[in-house]
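pasting for ref
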Amino acid sequence: MSSITSNLAAPTSPFRSFLQRTGERTERALFYVGGISDLAVQTVREAVRGPIESRLVIAQFEQVGVRSLSIVVITSLFIGMVLALQTAYSLEAFGVKMFIGKVVSLSLVRELGPVLMSLMVGGRVGAGIAAEIGTMKVTEQIDALRAMATSPVRKLVVPKVLATTIMFPVMTVVSIFIGILGGWLIAVANLHLPGNFYMRSVVETVHYNDLASGLGKTFFFGFAVGLIACYNGLRTSGGADGVGRATTVTVVMGAITVLILDFFLTKLFLLAF
């Protein structure tokens, strides 16, 4: 009788195990989102309360912006060139190859420039921030700051998050400009279109609402990437392995967050503009 009962109950055990794992992962995800939200509130509070150490912020400007220029320039240049080639290939069948400037510029300004720049720079900067703070955490430097009555949020998180929030739009402007320049190179050298005509079509196509939509999203991208990197660094444990895990989680979660935010912010800006 007992064997019959166990056989009847056996098919339900995998389902119960699945539900249990799903519940545990959901709980961890909610705790993760709650921890980031709490850190966001603390960061904004400390930034508003001030004073902000300008020396630390300027150092982060160099780390986030200046040292990421090479990645942004190379990525944006070839994205603009590839986009121009693909657009020309698609439009040539309809005999409207002259619209290549409009397609390239609008695609870069509204979507490709902000998102790809945030993914590339966010991965580099986020990994660096998480590794730096994570190393400080496992070597007990964070505890030493607290022992000296110094807030880690004020000293570490605020300068880094402020730098990513401000520098992401700046780097997006550079990305858009270089991408349009890459499209111009292909249009002139490979497609034999007049350079003045290409640039004139870019100027006539891109409007204020397009720039506002593209650049406006990057403020949120920068804030989210900096916050995720700092949070993962502050919760690091387990020595060098923990630092590696925190860095990996930061890159993955930063990329996913950028893509999710891009969808909702695009919907919002389409309604607003």
